[in-house]
Amino acid sequence: MEKDFEKIFQDKIDREVRIEPRDWMPEKYRQTLIRQISQHAHSEIVGMLPEGNWITRAPNLRRKAILLAKVQDEAGHGLYLYSAAETLGISRDEMYHQLHTGKAKYSSIFNYPTLSWADMGAIGWLVDGAAIMNQVPLCRTSFGPYARAMVRVCKEESFHQRQGFEILLTLSRGNEAQKKMAQDSIDRWWWPSIMMFGPKDDESPNTQLSMKWKIKRFTNDELRQKFVDVCAEQIKILGLTIPDPELKWNEERGHYDFGPINWDEFWQVVQGNGPCNKERLEARRKAWDDGAWVREAASAYAAKRKNDTTEAAA
Ligand code: FAQ
Q1: How many domains does the chain have?
Q2: Domain range holding 136?
Q3: For residue 260, what are the CA distances in angstroms to 181, 229, 230, 257, 301?
Q4: pTM
Q5: First-last CA distance in the chain
Q6: Which residues form a coiled coil (predicted)?
Q7: Distance from the CA of 196 to the CA of which of 63, 114, 123, 313 falls in 20 to 30 A?
Q8: How far is residue 47's CA from residue 161's CA, in Å, rounded to a whole number?
Q9: What separation in Å is there between the alpha carbon of 107 and the centre of ligand 1?
Q10: Residues 166 and 306 in one domain
């Protein structure tokens, strides 16, 4: 029986029919999606912290308004994604609990500090750029609510990427100190950004099944290569350099070659030992604790309303 269901399920996937929350799905498909979507949601929410750090220090009102809107967009993305994950039968409280206890991951990139204004440019160009490269294919992911949430997210990420590039372009056309600040920022964010795509394919335990089920449309290495190819061209417009002496166009492959990734650093950050892991989790736990009175008040109000309605009906 289970085998028949699995066959029908895989057949739908192969025919590009979306899977919806009430459709039968293998338990492992459900669990993989809960893991990926909730970790994606957590990344959006934790991802507000490094940029939030610069809202009060943006160099002018226009930059401040743009950054504020961008950070608010990330909150919105987190909320759509938590809603998409809830359709798979997990509660939002449970997802928060998993984040706060360190059971659920969030993107490694948000454990690096934002040291200068140019970092707002590098995050937009590189981090949002990497996010779009990964997320545009997710608009065609096999699970309906996730795919639909990604459409709007990608439109907004595309604006984020451009605003980041524009910050760097302005700095790159500025004085020596500004150019230096932009270069320093790219030097710090380049390698962590290419680590965002996850471990290389032969060390990625989830890729094989996620590709079979069309949760992922491209592997980690395929997306990383596309990203490197795009950035290697865009950097020329900035007149700055990517901190990789091995970055070189390979005519035969039709791609840029690039140097070795420090996987030890990646796993250290993923396991909680990056420069800001502790600080990020503490900020999220504090936000949860500080919001306790709001949750209590909302529950008390809901209970009172329910009581009032029952009494009125009696
Ligand atoms: N950081 O087998 P795989 C954004 C974990 S949103 C931490 O390859 P998978 C917007 C992985 O979870 C950025 N952990 O896993 C923004 C797994 O551990 P688990 C987030 C990582 O799922 C911009 C283990 O390693 N985007 O930036 C990372 O098939 C600016 C083995 O890995 C998404 O979440 C990592 N980088 O592929 C916000 C997109 N990479 O769970 C603010 C959706 C891997 O088994 C400002 N997610 N791990 O314990 C995906 O596409 C996939 O989940 C991957 C990983 C590609 C991230």
Answers
A1: 2
A2: 1-273
A3: 25, 16, 18, 10, 57
A4: 0.95
A5: 48
A6: none
A7: 63
A8: 14
A9: 5
A10: no
Q: From atom 12 of ligand 1, which residue's Cα is the shortest distance away?
A: 105
Q: Which two tokens stand for residue 142?
A: 């096999």
Asked whether 274 and 108 are in contact (CB, 8 A), the reply is yes
Closest CA to 228 of 240, 242, 245, 238: 242
- CATH number for the domain spanning 146: value is 1.20.1260.10
- For residue 244 the two structure tokens come to 């990789």
* Under 8 Å between Cβ of 12 and 75: no
> Which tokens go with 18?
């979306």
Q: How many CA atoms lie within 13 A of 51 on its CB side?
A: 29
Judge if 294 and 187 occupy the same domain: no
Atom 40 in ligand 1: residue holding the nearest Cα: 198
- 133-155 pLDDT, tens digit each: 999 999 999 999 999 999 999 99
Q: Are 171 and 199 contained in the same domain?
A: yes
Instruction: Please check whether residues 138 and 213 belong to one and the same domain.
Output: yes
Residue 163 token pair: 């605003």
In whole angstroms, what is the distance from residue 54 CA to residue 117 CA? 7
Q: What is the pLDDT of residues 155-197, one digit of tens each?
A: 999 999 999 999 999 999 999 999 999 999 999 999 999 999 9
219 lies in the same domain as 306 = no
Same domain, 73 and 117: yes
**Angle between helix 92-100 and 277-290 (nearest 10):** 140
